[in-house]
Every structure is written in structure tokens, then in C-alpha cells.
Design a protein that fits this description.
Helix content is about 35%, strand content about 15%. The chain has about 325 residues and is α/β, with parallel strands linked by helices. It has a domain at about 5-205 and about 235-265: Rossmann fold. Strands 3-2-1-4-5-7-10 form a seven-stranded parallel beta sheet, with helices on both faces. Helix 1 (about 15-25) packs across helix 6 and helix 7 crosses helix 9 (about 320-335). The longest helix has 27 residues, at about 165-190. The termini are far apart. Pfam families: Epimerase. Belongs to the NAD(P)-dependent epimerase/dehydratase family. Dihydroflavonol-4-reductase subfamily. This is NAD-dependent epimerase/dehydratase domain-containing protein.
């Protein structure tokens, strides 16, 4: 059981809560960054059996130059998950999407250089940082793989469509592409003594450890199930698998320092995923859910996940496990309403 100290941002979010839970279960100590002191009590309750492994630090603005001045003392590993979400509030691309995503990451990387105890910084990016702009809304086949970010064209001054979902989705994707590029540029410029690891999950589904009504990619699954056609291409990964990848990235052989190790995280048809299978499973196992999904389903993106499977030892949960864990929680909530 490791007693190394991990500094984590974004632990109050859907993915971050699972990452924190699995890291604590593996024996790591956590220093959790929160924006407001009022968030501490809920986290202490959520992780009550790990009370002696918890520490908290209040950082209102992660992009502030001195945000991490003392937060990284004695830290061995860093998990950086905090990032703006599509539809999470604010519509200005530069102010609400791009700057928080880029500055939050580069400021943390700058600070990490001042602490020789740090061995690895794991940044949670997204699979859409490795997909051409707008490709998810295209009828053309999509292939995502590591190493292509610099080839993706993004104009920070581009105009965005007025339709709300496309507007937020494209702003989010552009910010993810440019934030990951900033990570690559930072590593190339600074040649850090620690490993920089970038994880790229697709659409993350599963049971929430915090408030299931808060914004998360589960919303896309629910809206797809309750609409005649899915609102997104099928690109799933279980939130527990994403959390497991974070913990495994702490010790896996990921290559030399000074380079950014990228890992795509995504389940596929091998794990029983198709929109038709999702709809049939939901109808059979959760009859109280009004499933309207009937297709057509469009193109299924392809993700090259061999690196995560080989170097991190990842195996992906199947469709029934992921969808079932999410819908069980939704049915429970509706029963309490």
C-alpha cells in the first residue's frame, strides 16, 4: 500500500470523484484542491473511511500565477482534472473555455517544476483533443489515435454555430485541442524532470459518486436513450475504467521524462457496445425508463487504444455493466422524487 501524496484538482466532479476514490483505496494520500471551503464537509463524508489519508487546500482560481505556491509541498504525484465543461456556465470562448483550460494546466506544470519530489503529472484531457474539429458531427468515419494533436487545425478566433449544443460542444472541443497542444508545447520547451501523462477518455458514462444531477457526459447517454436518434456518436468508456487508468498511470512504464505520454481510453463493440444493444438492454432491464432510441445511428468512431491496453494494462467494462450502473442510479433517484 502506497503512502505517497497525490495533489488532485477536480475531485468534486464526476470523473474526479472516482479517481480520488480509487487512489484512496489503493493507499495513496490525497491533497484535494477545492475552490471553496464549504466543499470540504461533503468530501470528508464521501471518503469518511479514508479520513487519515485526506488533506485539503482552497484554491479559488487555478490559473492564478501563485495558485500552487504551497499546495505541492511534499507531493509525489499530481492529478489535474479540473476543466470547464460544455454547458457549465459562460459562453465566451476565450474567457470561459480556452483560458481556464490552458492556464490551469500550464500554471500547474510551471509550479510542479519547483518541487523536486514530484515524479509524475497526469493531465485529464479528452479523446476529442485527438479528433479533427467538428468530426463528431460529421457523417464521415472517425479515427482517433495518439500523436495527431499538432496536425489538427483550430482557429482560436473562429466563429461558432448558434445552435446551443453545437456551440458549446465545438467550443469545448477547440479548448481541449488547444489545451493539450499547450501541454505538448510546455513539455517540449521545459524538458521537465517528471513524467507528463495525458489521458484521453471518450464519452464517460456510469454511476456518479457525487450529485448525479450535476452536468456530466451521462447527460448525453440519457438524452440519446430518450430521443429517437442519439445526440452523439457512440464513443463510450466507463468512469471506473477512467479512474483506474489514472491510478495505473502512476506506476506504469510510460517512457522517458520530457515527452508527453498520451493514452486514449475507450470501450468498443468488443465490449458489447452499439446503440441498438444499449436501447434493447435499457428496455429489457429498466422498463420504467421511457426509451425512444431507434436509430438510424450514424457512424461509430474508431479509437486506437492499444497503448492503454498494453502499457497501462487496461481492460474495458462491458456495456451492460456501464449502462446498468448508470440507469440503476437514475431509477433510484426517480423513486425518491
Amino acid at each position: 500500500m502506497s503512502q505517497s501524496l497525490i495533489f488532485i484538482t477536480g475531485a468534486t466532479g464526476f470523473i474526479g470523484a472516482h479517481v480520488a476514490s480509487q487512489a484512496l483505496s489503493a493507499g495513496y494520500r490525497l491533497r484535494i484542491s477545492i475552490r471553496k471551503e464549504a466543499q470540504i464537509d461533503a468530501l470528508r463524508t464521501l471518503y469518511s473511511k479514508y479520513a487519515d489519508q485526506l488533506d485539503f487546500v482552497v484554491i479559488p482560481d487555478l490559473s492564478s500565477p501563485d495558485a500552487f505556491a504551497s499546495a505541492l509541498q511534499d507531493v509525489t504525484y499530481v492529478f489535474h482534472l479540473a476543466s470547464p465543461l460544455p454547458g457549465g456556465g459562460g459562453s465566451d470562448f476565450e474567457k470561459d473555455y480556452l483560458q481556464p483550460a490552458v492556464k490551469g494546466t500550464t500554471t500547474l506544470l510551471d509550479a510542479a517544476q519547483n518541487f523536486p519530489t514530484i515524479k509524475r503529472v497526469i493531465v485529464t484531457s479528452s479523446a476529442i483533443a485527438l479528433i479533427p474539429m467538428g468530426a463528431l458531427f460529421s457523417t464521415e468515419p472517425i479515427v482517433s489515435k495518439e500523436g495527431i494533436n499538432r496536425s489538427l487545425a483550430v482557429d482560436p478566433k473562429m466563429s461558432f454555430p448558434e445552435e446551443p449544443m453545437a456551440n458549446a460542444g465545438l467550443k469545448y472541443q477547440a479548448s481541449k485541442i488547444l489545451a493539450h497542444r499547450a501541454t505538448l508545447d510546455w513539455a517540449a520547451a521545459h524538458n521537465p524532470s517528471f513524467n507528463v501523462i495525458s489521458l484521453h477518455p471518450s464519452f464517460v458514462f456510469g454511476r456518479s459518486l457525487t450529485d448525479p444531477r450535476s452536468i456530466s457526459s451521462n447527460d448525453y447517454l440519457w438524452q440519446s436513450l430518450t430521443s429517437p436518434q442519439p445526440i452523439i456518436p457512440l464513443a463510450p468508456v466507463d468512469v471506473r475504467d477512467v479512474a483506474e487508468a489514472h491510478v495505473k498511470a502512476l506506476s506504469a512504464d510510460v517512457g522517458p521524462t520530457g515527452e508527453v505520454a498520451e493514452f486514449l481510453l475507450n470501450a468498443s463493440e468488443r465490449e458489447g457496445w452499439s446503440w441498438d444493444a444499449v436501447a434493447q438492454f435499457a428496455k429489457e432491464k429498466f422498463p420504467s425508463v421511457e426509451v425512444l432510441l431507434e436509430g438510424p445511428y450514424g457512424v461509430t468512431p474508431q479509437f486506437e487504444t492499444a497503448r492503454a491496453e498494453t502499457l497501462l494494462g487496461m481492460k474495458w467494462r462491458d456495456m451492460q455493466d456501464t449502462v446498468g450502473s448508470y440507469l440503476e442510479q437514475i431509477v433510484e433517484l426517480k423513486g425518491k422524487a
